[in-house]
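Figure caption, in words: inputs first, then the predicted bound structure.
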Amino acid sequence: MAKYSSKINKIRTFALSLIFIGFLVMYLGIIFKSHPIVMTIFMLLGLLCIIASTGVYLWIGMLSTKTVQVLCPSCQKPTKILGRVDICMHCNEALTLDKSLEGKTFNKKYNQRQL
Ligand SMILES: [Zn+2]
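Bound structure (zinc ion present):
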């Protein structure tokens, strides 16, 4: 089975990379110090990325309240499920809250249908 990471982890990685991109873009702006307009554009773009990542972090916070905590049947550790199907944070075991999907191969489509 292909490796999937749990959805919340994925979103968190995305938010983190947005911050890095933001700082990188702002750093590029410093290189163009002699061109104030170019520098301002880079600074604004960098700032936008950082603002966007803050928004994503807020979104994670909201999503976290909707997750269901379960004990993973595979590794016996508590993990969180978001949506109908998700992946155990510890062992990448496919988990579902929907009895009709139990035993079926993990498929990302199940989530898309719900959204
Ligand atoms: Zn597990």
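The beta strands are 68-71, 78-81, 85-87, 94-96.
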